[in-house]
Amino acid sequence: MKQTKRLIGLVLILTLAITTGCTKEGPTAPQPPAVQEPMPTEEPEQPPTEKPETAASERPKTDEPETTEPKEEIDYSKRYQTLLDDYYELIVTNDGWDYPNDGEIGVVEATLGLEPAQALEHIGYTIEDISGDGIPELLITSAHRDEDGQAIGSSVFAAYTYQDGAPHLSFISTARSNYRYKGQGQFHYVGSAGAIYSILGSFTISDDGTTLINQDYYFTHEKDENYDDIAVFYNDKGIWDREESIELDMTLDDLWQLEREQAEEIVEIDITPFSDYTPTRPIDVDLPRVSVDWIEGTPDGEYDEFVVDETEPQVKILLEAITEVEDLRLLALTYEDHPEGQITFSTEELHHLDRLTPERPLVVRLAGFGTIPNFGISYKDKTGATKYYAVTESGRDGSLLLMEFEK
């Protein structure tokens, strides 16, 4: 009985001790008894849990440091090389009879009837990213030279991008459906679908450079079946379809005025003429090694001069060697009939130079040209054979041409 009372008393004492430590916030954890502990030895201050960033030079080296490989720069001139060779061959061998491949019809039309050397000067190319996708497009263009001698052009005969490992034809121009560059990937378009059908439009190259996207498309079309009343229609789909378009309150004169205003946005871009392109494969064509052109004043640097005839009116032409030629002779030509219809001339020597070099051209003064060539040149090629050329004036643009003939 006494043991039972002692046990109950002990429980009451423990209950009072625990209850004394309670608050409204809940029980407070019991504190451990105070124990005398030895003084701790000083230890270095521990760094914070979050380590500050260290300079790159202070970071520990690893066996395989991270490196960023430089991106290989793609030479797209090589990607388009076969295509450029094809165009060069087309230009110098164009006879207008072979049906061209896709994209070539505009070049065939622009060079038909031109001598190879002149045709190479009339067509050029540029490789630049006009779509902004990082892949440069190849533009085959018209070519002429500005007053500083830089080759420039605006008419785009064909445009290509590089896709799936090969050139992709994006669009073409022809004589009756022509795109001219306005810059920033935009093109001015003029087309014709017949005597009474004219087209005026604005296009933008697609983001991937594969096609053109229409912005504006104006065209003329008869209102009814009698063709007496011609109206101007408009759509932004780039289609020649009266049913898909709206008729505008615009006269034909208004349309031509709009065309002139939009044509002012055309820009000339620097290009490389194919006369400056060197094919990467053999092309069987024998081009003149001398160029001929009109000249006013005198050329820069050293030159020779010869007067053929002082009869007025006088003209001056410039003969320049593309590469050095030997035994250059200036010739008076007399046309002769040939039983097989070939063009041939008898010749009389007027002047002789042992050699003509690119560094020292020859200026020739004479009394103009007739319908039938009466002046020519000859020289020896690298094989020692003599080549004969008549100097004639182009009926296309008045420039001078060298027309080869056999003597």
**Count of spatially separate domains:** 2
What is the subunit arrangement here?
single chain
Shape: globular
Number of helices: 6
| Rg (CA only) | 42 Å
What structural category arises from helix and sheet content? alpha+beta
Low-pLDDT stretches: 1-62
Q: Characterize the largest beta sheet: strand count, sense, and whether it forms a barrel.
A: 11 strands, antiparallel
Please give the share of residues in helix.
Answer: 10-25%
pLDDT averaged over residues: 82
Percentage of residues in DSSP E strands:
35-45%
Ends apart, CA distance between termini: 154 Å
* Topology, number of strands: 25
Characterization of this structure:
It is globular and about 70 Å long. With 407 residues, the chain is of the alpha+beta class. Helix 3 (81-93) crosses helix 5. Strands 3, 4, 7, 8, 9, 10, 11, 12, 13, 14 and 16 form an eleven-stranded antiparallel β-sheet that branches. It has a five-stranded antiparallel β-sheet with strand order 21-20-23-24-25, with no helix packed on it. A four-stranded mixed β-sheet has the order 17-19-22-18, with no helix packed on it. Residues 1-62 have low confidence and may be disordered. It has two domains: 76-270, no CATH class; 288-405, no CATH class. It has helices spanning 2-20, 76-79, 81-93, 105-111, 116-122, 252-263; strands at residues 22-23, 26-27, 123-128, 137-142, 144-145, 151-153, 155-163, 166-172, 177-183, 186-194, 197-205, 212-222, 230-235, 246-247, 269-270, 272-273, 290-294, 304-307, 315-321, 325-336, 344-356, 362-366, 375-380, 386-393, 400-405.
